[in-house]
Amino acid sequence: MSELGELVGHQNTIYEATAPVAMYVAGILTHPAAMTLRPYRNVPIRATLLNWLVSTAYDASDEIVGRTEQYFPGFLTPGTIVAAFRDLRPMLYRAVAPFLRDSHEDVREAAVIAALILAEHPALAEHRDHLAVHARAILDTSSDDPNRRVARKALEAWGHDVPDPEPFREEPWDWGPHSDGRGDLEPPF
After folding, report:
1. What is the pLDDT of residues 27-46, one digit of tens each?
2. Which of 91, 172, 176, 178 makes the best surface tag, with the fewest CB within 10 Å?
3. CA nearest 123: which of 154, 99, 94, 156?
4. SS3 92
5. Which residues neighbour 15 within 8 Å (Cβ) at sequence distance 6 or greater?
6. Which residues partner with 37 through β-bridges?
């Protein structure tokens, strides 16, 4: 698992090996061994594999590619490594979709987030209304802020009503050394 993150996804880059590895990961999601719990984490390997797909798909998402194109024109021209990976999104979506209603919460949430990112592909537009239901479930139940952000952005991009974001609330452990809620840079008087 660490090899996926370090060698194939190092520094959020899509490498020549990324597409074949993503296809392999997509192919083994249904293997029974993928429900083996990872040592010390109590999370199925399937959830970890799906989260790797989330991370990789995000690195090739419209948002990231759009930002990169500003500084490196031609980054997405046909035939580039990133363009080839982005062309795989419908196939990756088909591998992820069976887990959208998985009984294990970690697997289900990872599958939903992967599907939301992959559904940026125009060929997957027909799935967006169905995925909106899952995105709303993430907003309602997830405590993971990055996942909630992905769900919110997908709903907004697809023209769905999105509830107002919850206001950011500082937690007491963020207040600094003062017990009365003052920050580190505020004078103690």
Report:
1. 999 999 999 998 878 899 99
2. 172
3. 94
4. helix
5. 8, 81
6. 44
